[in-house]
Amino acid sequence: KNEQGKTQVVKLGLKPDQKDSLEYEFAIALRIDQDHIAEATKDNSNMFNMPFKITKEVGEKIYEWSSEGIDLEKLKDELISSITELATQSENHENMFKELHSKINNVPLKNVKTKVLERMKEMLEKIEVPTVEQQSENELDEEQTELFDEANPPIANDFEKK
């Protein structure tokens, strides 16, 4: 039903019509309805996350994007090196990297999709690197914890009953 409450025909289940001799891999594929509302069925540009009304400006935006000529392999290599560098910044970073990498079945990073790599990098960047003061406080706390014997606390020795 439309805004006036009347029943309206909506087309569903349209499949792309592609000839057998077409040998191209599409970077962007849009499904457009009769109201000129487009929905991305494939989008390597990451420009179209939601359905939108297709206009001349959208076409210009696609043209500009396709003219940029971004080297995707170089971008992926840069992401991998950033992730690798971030993973060595602290123990927390290393643990987070191991956890994230295990969630993708420890697939080599070279074989992981760029969007997943970007998300991994974002998550690693959110982890704060402890300052020198925080590290020394943490080390002191750990040393004190190691010295403490739960079975025989130091205060108990001072107040033994005779």
UniProtKB/TrEMBL annotation:
Highest taxon, organism lineage: Bacteria
Biased composition (Acidic residues): 136-149
Disordered: annotated segments: 128-162
Protein name (Swiss-Prot/TrEMBL): Uncharacterized protein
Higher taxonomy: Bacteria, Bacillati, Bacillota, Bacilli, Lactobacillales
